[in-house]
Specification:
Helices cover 0% and strands 46% of the residues. With 702 residues, the protein is mainly β.
Length: 702
């Protein structure tokens, strides 16, 4: 005998059968096929969360099942199971940031509780759409049933009440398709349920919040009460009603920018922007040269900014930003005072200096602490990456920051002291997140703390106006060259000359210490980490001010022939409490991240084709006790095997090049009887460097 599906029709005119109103998935289409397994926190093929790894409540099962015998179509589906009231389990879906919601919308998905053995189900959420910052929209569907009967029923919560058992006697092992149509102008929601292709209208309900757009969808055990149950979901779509020849939008893609390889133009235009050797993209061939990565030199008088006031609670955290004030010339450092460990608020404070070495803490009179405003507190809370944006036409927005508050808020200030916050952004990110300006692409970029394979890694988001941000995509992850216990805790990104430099905080969980390494990129999305030694190492002695936990600089500052990096240090380990913390200075030779070095045996470097835009060629090189010469070679022969013996372009030959010796960040390359490159204008050439007992850091033309 054929099983009879029991549908309880509620009062209200249904009009056109809602079962015919399929969704085109133009707002969200999740089929789970593109999901990146073990990723947490970024928008992952439309999946925001699988479970909730930071909850203290015991989690049961939240998973993307990879099994064509279980999935509705393809090989994957979402799955949640909790069998005890104290457990939780959920999957959160989220439309992409660039998907605009429209007035009406149709949602559809297929659902079944189990693939084999029936289970107990009680108030298990089958569908809960929410607006941004919480609050349901449309209706909430939930199920209850018994393992003994093998069936379940669906109930609907709308704006007025809970409508119990609107559909009964659904088999737990069979797929049903559920269609939800919101008529927002009339504040009505129509629902149809049934085997795929045979859906039947259930009823019409009152929209919980007809003004709200769907910002996310929660599936499974999401309550704080005793909910149990099991569910499988597949082919989830939110969009407009399909009609005629309308096409279904493709499933959400992987949010992964790791494969977006940046390629240099050919020929490379070489002007005032210096060319560094952080990778091999500019190198066509080389002989007898070694690439050396150089660490910083720590300032002998460290630390420079120390906690010496009650509101600083013995712990200063360098997650703010050091900038030179354009009007006064003062060095200004926004830093965090971490009060959580002693039960007081965390503050953002300001220190000022005339020379970057001696720092004072001005009495700002802005915030009260212990009954007095005689302090340097800017505001309560944690600000990340304060930036001065002189190009913003609104003086009230010249200073920008992101402010941690259950996600991040945008912060604006006219003077860096008086701040206002606006709407939340970057909700796919956690505390160790940075924001910087990309001057090449004229956009803001964020490096977001997310999780992959159980470890902290880095995500990428961007914005053209600082207001509207993209979703977070997977960007930089650990690899086989990392230690098994290493995590990518924080990344501060900056453009330096022709490359993007990342100051990467590495958390070594086996020792509970954090140091700073380097990462390099040509597009701020795909990163290389050619050296895993510490760029800023920990202090050597236990108890030294920067022994345990380092916080990376949020950029660098060119001072004469040096680059200055302000970094945070703690004598305590990452998980030790109470923490302490101070701020110190580290220095590097200008352009000094990487050099190509030659010893007694002469080394040769030949570049890829370049066009010299300036009249003169310059190099940053240390040739003390040695020499460096340059030759210009025709660029038409691209056979790498013939490069070493290729003839020069006269008069720019090795014999006519004035030998460079000594150490300078700015050597001018000269040839006898040559005053400029007029004869080479717009002509692709290759540069051939000859080094003996010398180091080459960079080259450029002007």
């Amino acid at each position: 005998m054929e099983r009879m599906l029991v549908v309880v029709l509620l009062a209200g005119a249904l009009g056109q059968p809602v079962g015919a109103q399929r969704s085109d998935g133009s707002i969200l289409h999740v089929d789970f096929e593109n999901h990146i397994d073990e990723g947490v926190g970024f928008l992952n093929a439309g999946v925001r969360w699988v479970g909730y790894p930071f909850s203290e409540i015991k989690q049961k099962i939240s998973a993307i099942v990879v099994d064509p015998n279980v999935a509705f179509g393809g090989s994957r589906c979402g799955y949640v199971w909790t069998d005890r009231p104290e457990q939780r389990g959920r999957i959160t879906l989220q439309p992409r940031a660039d998907q605009a919601n429209r007035a009406d919308a149709v949602a559809e998905f297929v659902f079944r509780p189990v693939s084999a053995r029936a289970v107990a189900i009680e108030d298990f959420v089958v569908w809960s759409a929410e607006q941004n910052r919480g609050g349901a929209v449309g209706v909430v569907l939930f199920a209850h049933g018994s393992a003994a009967s093998g069936t379940y029923a669906l109930s609907v919560k709308d704006a007025r009440r809970v409508h119990r058992d609107v559909v009964r006697d659904l088999l737990q092992t069979e797929w049903v398709r559920i269609l939800i149509h919101r008529n927002r102008s009339e504040r009505k929601v129509s629902i149809a349920v049934g085997p795929p292709g045979r859906e039947k209208a259930v009823g019409e309900f009152e929209d919980i919040n007809a003004q709200g757009d769907v910002a996310r969808v929660e599936l499974g055990d999401i309550s704080e009460t005793g909910v149990v149950g099991s569910g499988h979901w597949d082919d989830v779509r939110i969009g407009q009603a399909l009609a005629g020849e309308d096409r279904i939008s493709p499933p959400e893609p992987r949010s992964d920018v790791r494969g977006e390889v940046a390629r240099l133009p050919s020929p490379v235009l070489v002007g005032r922007e210096k060319q560094l050797f952080v990778d091999s993209l500019l190198v066509q061939t080389q002989q007898n040269l070694k690439r050396t990565f150089h660490p910083v030199t720590k300032f002998s008088k460290n630390p420079l900014i120390v906690p010496d006031s009650p509101w600083e609670s013995k712990s200063i955290i360098a997650l703010g930003r050091m900038q030179r004030d354009v009007s006064s010339g003062l060095w200004r450092y926004w830093y965090g005072a971490w009060g959580k460990q002693i039960g007081q608020p965390t503050f953002e404070c300001l220190a000022e200096s005339n020379d970057g070495i001696t720092w004072l803490k001005p009495r700002l009179g802005l915030q009260e602490f212990a009954g007095s405003k005689a302090n340097n507190i800017v505001r309560e809370g944690r600000m990340f990456g304060v930036r001065f944006d002189g190009a913003d036409p609104d003086p009230a927005r010249r200073y920008k920051a992101i402010i941690r508050d259950a996600g991040f808020l945008l912060g604006y200030s006219p003077d860096g002291l008086r701040w206002r916050t606006t709407r939340p952004v970057l909700d796919q990110a956690y505390d160790a997140t940075s924001v910087s300006w990309d001057p090449v692409e004229a956009k803001w970029i964020a490096s977001c703390k997310i999780w992959y394979q159980g470890r902290r890694v880095r995500g990428y988001a961007e914005s053209r106006d600082f207001e509207t941000w993209t979703d977070t995509a997977l960007s930089l992850t650990h690899d086989e060259a990392d230690g098994a216990h290493d995590q990518l805790y924080h990344l501060a990104i900056g453009r330096y000359e022709s490359v993007y430099v990342g100051l990467l905080k590495i958390y070594h969980t086996d020792t509970d210490r954090c140091d700073i390494q380097l990462a390099f990129s040509r597009n701020a999305k795909q990163w290389s980490r050619p050296d895993r030694s510490a760029f800023i190492p920990n202090g050597r002695e236990r108890g030294s001010w920067d022994y345990g936990n380092l916080d990376q600089p949020d950029g660098w500052h060119v001072v004469g022939d040096e680059m200055w990096f302000y970094y945070g240090g703690r004598s305590t380990l990452h998980n030790e409490s109470p923490n302490d913390g101070s701020i110190g200075l580290a220095k590097l030779r200008l352009d000094g991240f990487v050099s190509l070095d030659a010893g007694d045996q002469p080394g040769v470097l030949i570049t890829q084709p370049v066009v010299l835009k300036g009249r003169s060629l310059f190099v940053n090189a240390d040739a003390r006790g040695g020499s460096l010469k340059v030759e210009i070679v025709d660029a038409h022969n691209t056979d790498a095997s013939a490069d070493i013996s290729d003839p020069p372009v006269y008069p720019f030959h090795r014999g006519g090049c004035v030998e460079i010796s000594g150490d300078s960040v700015r050597h001018e390359v000269r040839w006898a009887d040559v005053s400029g490159f007029e004869s080479l204008r717009e002509q692709p050439v290759r540069l051939k460097f000859y080094l003996t007992r010398a180091r080459l850091y960079a080259f450029w033309s002007e």
